[in-house]
Structure formats: C-alpha cells, structure tokens
C-alpha cells in the first residue's frame, strides 16, 4: 500500500490549480475583452450580411470553412490519446488523457459555432434540421459533430467521477454551492468494487465507441469536399488524409497545453520531460503518416496532370498560393519532423515552439485545401471584377475567425479551474500498482 | 525599321477598323415605316415602373443601371447607357425596332417579350428623359378584341392552318398581310415553330408542324399563335392540341435517388445512417444506465 502522506501530497498538488488567482482574472479579462471585440465584428456581419466578408459567388467557402475544418481536426486528439493509446496500454499517456479530452471537448463544441459564422442567415439554422436530407454530407456532419461532443463530454466526465468526490471532500475555500455540485456530480462515489467495475466498464466502452465516431467526424468533414468532382477535392483518400492531418494539429495543441499547464500549475513532477519526449515521438509519427498522405494527394494527380488538376497544382506549387503552400509544408511539417528526431529538441521549450509552428501550419493547411479549389471552378470565370476571382479575407472575417479560438481558450481555462487536469484517482492507482 | 513601320501600320489599321466598327454600330438603319411606329400604351409612372421590372430581368445585365454609366465594359461594342444623348435622340419607333431585331451580342426580344412589355421598357427608359413628349399611336387598342384566330390541324400534310378574321359591325374582315408566328409552350418559355409568316388575302397562313415534336403522356401540346397587324395591333391565341408524339419519360425525381428529397432517399443510405446513429445512441444509453447503477450501488451498501 502507498503511504498516506504520499497520497495526500499528490492530492494537494493536483488540486492546487483549482483556485481563482490574480493571473487567472487577468487572463480571463483579456480573453473576455478580445471576445467582445470579435463579437462586435460578428454583429456587423449579422446586420450587413456576408457582403462584409471576402466571400462571393466563386469563393463561397473561405476562411470560415477552413477554420471549421481546423477546429474539427484539432478535436480529434481526444480520441487518439485517451482511446487509442489508453486501449493499447500505453500508460505514459494517462496523465495527458484529461488535457486531451478538455481540448477535444472545447474544439468540438466550438466547431459547431464556427460553421454558423459562415451562414448569412443563421436565423434559418433550424431549417438544416427540419429539411435536412440524409443524402447530404452536411446532415451527416451535424450528426457526427453533435455525437462527438456528447461522447467527448461523457469521456471527460466518467473518469472524473472519483476525482469529483475528492474535490468535494478535500477542497477547502470553495463556496458551498460548488461543493454541492461536486457532490451531486460524483454520483455517490465511494470506491466500492462494484463502482470501480462499472466505471472501468463504462470508460472502456466509451473508449471503443469514440474511435469510430471520431473517425466519422473527420471523414464526413472530408466528404463535404470529396463528394464534389472539383479539382483538388475529388480524391478517394480525402478521409484518411483529413484524419491523419487532424492528429498532427491535435498533438501540437496538446503539447502547447502541456507546456502551459506544467509551468503555471507547477506540475513538473507529473508532466515530466519523459512525457514531452513521448509526445515528441508521437508527433513525429503522425506527421510522417501525414507527409505520406500528402505525397499521395499531390503526386498521383501531379503525374497525370489532367487539365483541371494541372491548373490547381500549378497554382499551389508555383502560382498564387505557392508561398503559403511551401511555408506550410516546410515549416509546418518537414522541419518539425527533422527537428523532433533529435532528443534535445524533445524538451519542453523547443517542443512548445515546434508545437506552435505545427499548429499555425495546420491552420494554413486547411486554408490551402479550401480556397485554391474554389478559385478555379470548371466553368470559366468571365467579366467579373478581380476581387470575385481572387479571395482575400476582410478584417471582419479575420476577427470573426479568431472568436472561436478565444472561446476555446475560455472553455479550457474555465474547465481547468474547476476540475483537476491530471487524474488524481488514476495517478494514485498507478502508483499503487507499481508498489 | 521596316518591322516597326509594319507594326505601326497594323496598329493604325486595327484602330481604324475599330473606329469604323463603332461607327457602324451606332447606325441602326431603321426602315422608315418602322421609324414612325408609336406605342398605343401611354408612358406614365405606372408603365415605367412595370418596365423597370422587365428591364432589370432582360436588359440590366449588359446595359447596367440607367443613368449610372455602369454597362458591361468588356463587351464589344460597349452597350450604351440608355440615358445617353445618343439613345435619347432615337425615336420610339427606332427603339422598338432595335428591341425587335437586336444585333451582334444584343438578342432580338420580339419573340421573348410581348409587344406591350417591349413598349413598357421604352416607357421606363423615357422616364429618364425630362424633355421627352410622347406621341401616342392613333390605333385603337380595343380593336384587338374583335379579332378571332382559328387554328386547324391538317394531319395528312402535317400543317397547322390558321385563319385570322375580325368581327367588325359591318361584317367579317379578313386580316391581310398581317405578321403571324406560331409557338409551342415548353418547360421554360416558348419555342417558335416554323418561320414568322404573313397572312394571305383570305387572312390565312399555314405553318409546317414538326412530326417529332414531343408532347405530354397523351400527345397534348399547347400552341400559341401571335398576330401583329397594322390596324388591330398584337393579338395572341392559345389552344391545346393532341397532335404531338406522346412522351412518357419518367421524371428524374420519381424514383429513389441521391438527388431526390429525403422521403425518396436511397434505402441503403438511410439504413447506413440510421444503423450508425442507433448503434452509437444505444451504447451511450447503456453507459448512462451504468452511471445510474453506479450512483445507486453505494446506497445499497449503506442500507
């Protein structure tokens, strides 16, 4: 058995972050003001219509859609770390599972809002549900995104039940209503064998269920593109291409979150260099798979150079989008892969910088997938002004695209102020197993 | 040196050609009898308002908003703004003729818009010219009501014979040398059959009727005869004939298909979707039931 003093230390260490301090207030104030500014831009869009954006007849899916794909993508990491690594018995990932689930839940929940920002008449949103057709990938997308948000919430909540009990008992200096909420949510947890068994079984079932659902959410998102015959989207590997790309951006997001949690919540004993080393290797693995899919996606049409594919590829490789394309491939994929092969680079600070580069690259990668294809329809564009042909996002569009990211940060910050971000119950359990 | 001169010559030649072309474009050569034609519809704010709607659907895409000089500049020749001095100088009859015949990129609107609509467009255009005074045609629009159009189908020769007469008080008058055209109604608008003819001295005209024209399930088609007479004006008559080839093509939205409404979605797709949704919902419900058991199991222990 583990000594009580050690258990107490772990508990107080991991509960330490659950308190409202000055830096939290400043950070939330900053996020709140930024969100307010961005919402102002959205109000302008609501009153004036989508004319305030750079969208038009030809590029009707612009920054908003690439933002949506990015958000859905990043949310997939919950499934990779908690479910795949958890089921395959990779114990090192256990302390990171909750961070991954928080990120997954926040990004997936906000993804639904991102798609609304692309609608000129969001008041007609209900019509998508009333008149939706099962033949449309959009209906499938709504179904799986909603399902994934629900499952992610359960997947965050169920392993949290024992910790909620600890919270209600061990946390002092919390208002009585908060203690009451912890108590209610902990569902009379008492750590009996039957309860342990039910908890394990439910977690395991969720872990299995979340894998196909998570695969579906990003595969269906890719079908929004792949079910059209347009150059650059008409590809059978679009599903796995999106899923692997999602792991890249999600891993980067987890690495960034790990760094800040470790630093601000003084979790150096729990999120160690070892975890960064492992996450670095995971990022290399998923990036290599993604690089492989990139090769397929561009080399196969590049070999045949069919008329419209040739226009698309020339535009990406040497044309108007070449700078962004090569920046994304080199700084968002190739250089991170090479750097992370060195042990020295898999330390917290270099990993943070690489993670940020990969995440930014991942965002622009979605831009590269959505916009160039829209700019080259099959029917020739004639007699239109230049801004119809070449898409440039407006300031309002950029602000409205930043808003979801702020919202995600707010959700993540709030969640990590009410629940322990490293599972206490599991950490103690794992230590007990070692003894 | 020679090559430069040659280039200059080519450039000069081209500019000359373009100048000549634009000169030619401005000169419509409207025949005298068409020039003197006038509307028997009064141009007032009401007809101008109606004309605005017709203008916006049929003319605006090239000519732009009247008075704003925003016509489509990429066309050759550039369509003029219709409040320009050059356009204002044209007589009503000339404008009407231009609408009727079209030229180059400008289509003929004669068979697209009824005569009254064409005049209303001109009424809208004139509403931008304060100095304009209308000369109303002396023809009596009520006279059109006297005209009777009789259509008879000759199945042996596959011809549609039309007789146009007017029931004047003094007796029946046969409309001679009146312009007459035959149309068939289709999904969008109408299609002209045969050429535009003129009635003979007995007020008769005979159109070739195509033998392969598809009709509805039993072969019905809707035929329109449009007569344009100097005295009686424009008269249209619509009637149904069972003379076309019966066509029973199943509609593309009749069977279950990817492009159909939800109620007619492919069954395999509905099954795939529902099975996924039901499976996931089932697992989630089971897990929620587990949570319920979990919360109860402790109570049992206490009791």
Description:
The complex is a heterodimer of chains A (435) and B (303). Chain A is mostly helical and 435 residues long. Chain A is 74% helix and 0% strand. Chain A has a single domain (4-434), classed as Formate dehydrogenase/DMSO reductase fold. Chain A is built from 18 helices and no strands. The model of chain A has no long low-confidence stretch (mean pLDDT 93). Chain B has three domains: 26-126, Cytochrome c-like domain (Cytochrome Bc1 Complex, Chain D, domain 2, Orthogonal Bundle); 141-241, Immunoglobulin-like (Sandwich), CATH 2.60.40; 254-291, no CATH class. Chain B has eight helices and eight strands, in the order H-H-H-H-H-H-H-E-E-E-E-E-E-E-E-H. In chain B, the strands form two sheets. In chain B, strands 1, 2, 3 and 6 form a four-stranded antiparallel beta sheet that branches. In chain B, strands 5-4-7-8 form a four-stranded antiparallel beta sheet, with no helix packed on it. In chain B, helix 3 (45-58) packs across helix 7. Classes of the chains: A mainly alpha (435), B alpha+beta (303). Chains A and B meet through helix 7 and helix 10 of A and helix 8 of B.
Give a topology summary.
The complex is a heterodimer of chains A (435) and B (303).
Chain A: H1 4-15, H2 22-48, H3 63-75, H4 77-87, H5 94-117, H6 126-130, H7 137-157, H8 161-170, H9 176-185, H10 193-226, H11 238-264, H12 273-304, H13 307-317, H14 322-340, H15 348-375, H16 386-389, H17 395-418, H18 424-434
Helix pairs in contact in A: 2-17, 3-5, 3-11, 3-15, 4-5, 4-10, 5-7, 5-11, 5-17, 7-10, 8-9, 10-11, 11-12, 11-15, 12-14, 13-14, 14-15
Chain B: H1 2-26, H2 32-35, H3 45-58, H4 60-63, H5 85-88, H6 92-101, H7 115-126, E1 147-154, E2 159-168, E3 171-174, E4 179-185, E5 190-198, E6 204-208, E7 221-229, E8 233-241, H8 267-302
Antiparallel strand pairs in B: 1-2, 2-3, 2-6, 4-5, 4-7, 7-8
